[in-house]
Structures are given as structure tokens and as C-alpha cells.
Design brief:
The chain is mainly α. The protein is 63% helix and 9% strand. It has helices spanning 13-32, 39-51, 56-63, 67-79, 101-110, 113-121, 125-143, and strands at residues 53-55, 83-87, 95-99. A 3-stranded antiparallel beta sheet has the order 1-3-2. Helix 1 (13-32) packs across helix 6 (113-121). The radius of gyration is 18 Å and the shape is globular. The mean pLDDT is 94.
């Protein structure tokens, strides 16, 4: 076998994941643009809608984002009055991120987005659920220490 065969783009798992991810993110754009949200901001909002209040560190861990990436995303959400952040009174090294009333209201406006995106994908529900489980398993394997 040609020793360079595995260097072909068609054999790269990383490329398939990257390209599929970009295409899925594009599906969200028409739903998020009217609300001035990027996909990454939407992900932050998903966690805040679930938790309402969380530690900055936990938010970053949950989204697999470092503080250098998360900080500007959060600054924009704060400027949009969707979230606030403040230092913990018991330990000022800990920063808490909390959903605002406007952020809570946005949840109602975007509640149909997951189903709308799912419909645009046009696959069988079972195959997408299986894919998600496999991707979650892969992510867990890659992030185990």
C-alpha cells in the first residue's frame, strides 16, 4: 500500500467532523440571525436557559471552551442584556454568569429552533440519535485525562 494513502483528505476523520459541523452550524444561522445571536452565543444561552445561573468556569467546561473564547462571547451577551456576570461574594476569584429577564424571554422566541433544524437535516430520528451518542462517546474519549 502507498504510505501516503492515509494522508488523503478522504481518509481524515477530522475533516469529516469539521465539514459536517460547519454545515450543521449553517442550518442555525437563519434562526439565530434575527435575534443577533451567533451559534456560539446560542450554545451559551442553551446552558443558561437550563441552569439560569452557573459559574463561569463550569460554563466553559460544559461547552469545551477556554476563557479566551468564552469571555468575548459572554461580553456580547452581556451587552445585549441577555446575561450578567458578577464575582462571588464568598470568593471573588469565582465569577457567576446569570440569565437576565430578557435572556429568559428569548428562550420562548427560540424554543422551536431545535425541531426546525432537525427537520432541515431530513434524516431518520434514530440515525441522528445514534450519531449523537457516538459523537458524545468520542468526545468523552478525547477529553478523558
Amino acid at each position: 500500500m502507498n504510505p501516503y494513502e492515509y494522508l488523503k483528505l478522504e481518509h481524515q476523520l477530522c475533516f469529516s467532523l469539521y465539514a459536517a459541523s460547519r454545515e450543521v452550524i449553517k442550518l442555525y444561522k437563519p434562526f439565530l440571525d434575527p435575534h443577533g445571536l451567533t451559534y456560539t452565543q446560542y450554545l451559551v444561552m442553551l446552558v443558561l436557559w437550563e441552569e439560569e445561573k452557573t459559574a463561569f468556569k463550569d460554563l466553559g467546561q460544559r461547552l469545551h471552551l477556554d476563557s479566551g473564547t468564552l469571555t468575548p462571547v459572554l461580553k456580547k451577551l452581556i451587552a445585549m442584556n441577555l446575561a450578567i456576570k458578577y464575582r462571588n461574594q464568598e470568593d471573588d476569584r469565582n465569577v457567576t454568569v446569570e440569565l437576565t429577564a430578557e435572556g429568559k424571554a428569548l428562550k420562548e422566541k427560540l424554543v422551536s429552533v431545535p425541531e426546525a433544524v432537525f427537520c432541515k437535516v431530513g434524516s431518520e430520528a434514530n440515525s441522528l440519535q445514534t450519531l449523537k451518542v457516538q459523537l458524545d462517546q468520542l468526545l468523552n474519549q478525547l477529553t478523558e485525562k
